Amino acid sequence: MKNRIHLYVSRKNALTWLMALCMVVSAVARIAFSGLKGSGDSLYVWSQIVLPIAATALYALIALLSGEELFYKTAIPVWLMALYAGLWISTNVASKLIIWLFWIALVFFASLYTDITAGHRAHAVLLLLPVVGIPLLFILYCCRSTLLSGNLDTLKLYLADILMLGGVLLMVFAVRIHPLGEYHPTWGDRSDGRRLRSLPPMSQVSPYIMVTRNTSTNYFEESLEISHVDRYIRQKRREGLTNFGITHVLLACYCRCLCKYPGLNRFVAGQKVYSRGEDIQYCMTIKKEMSSDSPDTVIKVHLTPRDTAADVYYKYQAIVDNVKNTPLDSSFDNTAGIFTLIPGVFLKFVVWLLKLLDYFGLLPKFLLEVSPFHGSLFFTSMGSLGIPPIYHHLYDFGNLPVFGSFGMKRRANEVLEDGTVVQRKYVDVKFTMDERIVDGFYYAAFFKHYKRILQHPEILDRPPDEVLRDID
Question: Tens of pLDDT along 121-135?
Answer without folding.
Answer: 767 788 889 999 998
